[in-house]
């Protein structure tokens, strides 16, 4: 999703683009800078079911604050519909129709950490 949105949105703040929060190594470095150490990192999958791919696309757009914040600018530039179309294409590629419903699998990294001084190697 980050690759699609990157063509339309301003670059994220320096340090850790949201698309890299799923990278255990990067997260470990960011936490280390705050005096923390990863104690567990597990990739999970979340399966979401929708009436159709359009509903899935709408959820991804409506729940992404950085996309919502840029909507007026993109509408003014006549790029909003292109963003929606590109994101819909991604959803179509990643999703499957299952029993009359549209299913989209999302992946996320769940990390727990503790103060580095409390974690033994």
Topology record:
Layout: H1 2-5, H2 24-33, E1 36-50, H3 53-62, H4 65-76, H5 80-94, E2 96-98, E3 101-115
Antiparallel strand pairs: 1-3, 2-3
Q: Which outline best applies?
A: flat
Fraction of residues in β-strands: 25-35%
Identify the strand order in the major beta sheet: 1-3-2
User: What are the low-pLDDT stretches, counting only 5+ consecutive residues below 50?
Assistant: none
> Could you estimate the helical fraction of the residues in percent?
40-55%
The SS-based structural class is alpha+beta
The counted number of beta strands is 3
Write down the Rg: 18 Å
Topology as H/E string?
A: HHEHHHEE
Mean pLDDT across every amino acid position:
90
Compute the number of structural domains. Answer: 1
Largest sheet: 3 strands, antiparallel
Q: How far is the N terminus from the C terminus?
A: 35 Å
Total DSSP helices: 5
Describe, in plain words, how this protein is organized in 3D.
- Helices cover 42% and strands 27% of the residues.
- By secondary structure, the protein is an alpha+beta fold.
- The chain has one domain (2-7, 21-116).
- It has a 3-stranded antiparallel sheet.
- A hairpin with a 2-residue loop joins strand 2 and strand 3 (101-115).
- The mean pLDDT is 90.
Summarize the structure.
By secondary structure, the chain is an alpha+beta fold. It is 42% helix and 27% strand.
């Amino acid at each position: 999703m980050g690759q699609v949105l990157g063509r339309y949105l301003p670059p994220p703040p320096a340090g850790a683009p949201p698309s890299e929060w799923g990278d255990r190594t990067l997260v470990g470095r960011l936490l280390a800078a705050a005096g923390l150490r990863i104690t567990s990192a597990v990739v999970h999958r979340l399966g979401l079911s929708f009436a159709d791919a359009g509903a899935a696309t709408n959820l991804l757009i409506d729940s992404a604050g950085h996309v919502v914040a840029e909507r007026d600018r993109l509408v003014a530039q006549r790029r909003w519909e292109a963003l929606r179309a590109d994101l819909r294409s991604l959803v179509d590629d990643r999703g499957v129709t299952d029993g009359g419903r549209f299913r989209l699998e999302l992946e996320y990294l769940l990390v727990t950490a503790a103060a580095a001084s409390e974690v033994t190697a």
